Amino acid sequence: MGHEKTFTALTAALAGTSFVYGAGMTESGVTFDPAQLVMDDEWIGMIRHFLGGIRVDAETIAGADIAAVGPFGDFLSLSSTYAHMREQSQPRLMDRRVREEWAADGSTDMYTRARVKACEILESHRPPEIDAEVKAQMRAIVDRVDQERGKA
Amino acid sequence: MSPLKLPRDATEVIVECARLGLSDTILSMAMAGGSAPVTLAGTLVVHNAEVLAGITLAQLTERGVPVVYGSSTTAMDLRFAAAAVGSPELALIGAAVAQMSKQYRLPSCIAGA
Predict the structure, then answer these.
(1) Does some domain include residue A89?
(2) pTM for the full predicted model
(3) A31, A119, B26, B37: which could join A62 in a potential S-S bond, CB 3.0 to 4.6 Å?
């Protein structure tokens, strides 16, 4: 499930593959599970975050902040923390809260949360409309090929 | 203790281990965004300073005592004020610490599986 997906995708990603396929697949690819796809999206997000590496420059090294905060201080209220906080990984299904908060929210497991999310997407997602002009062009291409091959 | 403080109980353990000739893992658990800069490069600066200070203390106590460069450092998930263990940030820091410890020619012990 999660472990095998991460293990195989991460090693290939680190070796520099262009694409990894298999998201949503289980049972050697015989079964496609929308909940698995939603979970895979989460692992892939983590892998992509890792592949982004660590940016090293004067701003990210934050020498002035470190000197200003000093021993036993904290970095929570710094403007640099505010400026960069959204660069942190923010998984939506993995629950990083303490046990009490997780329990108060129904003690759901990962697969249950993924299934709920998958059902939400299936019910509410509307793919963006293809532009009418583009649609007409596509139709024209199909019609022309049909005609050329005598299928019109 | 991040940032940049070696509390008494930690220093006593380091000194005692060194005196006994025990190998000791000297680690820090800086949390990016809380007790260290939110940017990981800055977090590594704080982490490295703390661990090197601990290693220096061990070596000053007993020159040549074996030490391990450790890390529990990770990000603080600022949405929940929780240590993001198992996060890509922890993985990135682990990889960086492994490389830095090689630079210092020290064995390393990193939070993970």
Answers:
(1) yes
(2) 0.86
(3) B37
Has the ipTM of the complex gone over 0.90?
no
Chain A residues with CB-CB distance to B82 below 8 A: 96-98
A35 touches chain B (CB under 8 A): no
Distances from the Cα of B109 to the Cα of A33, A42, A110, B46, angstroms? 38, 27, 29, 17
Compute, in degrees rounded to 10, the torsion defined by CA atoms B86, B90, B96, B98.
-50
Contacts of A42 (CB under 8 A, 6+ apart): A91, A92, A93, A94, A114
Residue B3 lies in a domain: no
Residue A54 has pLDDT above 70, yes or no: yes
Q: How far apart are CA A96 and CA A79, in angstroms?
A: 25
Percent of chain A with pLDDT over 90: 91
Q: What residues in B contact A71, CB-CB < 8 Å?
A: 3-5
Whether A110 is in a domain gets the answer: yes
Residues in chain A closer than 8 A to B3 (CB atoms): 66, 69-75
For A102, the domain range is 2-127
Q: Per this entry, what is the length of chain A?
A: 152
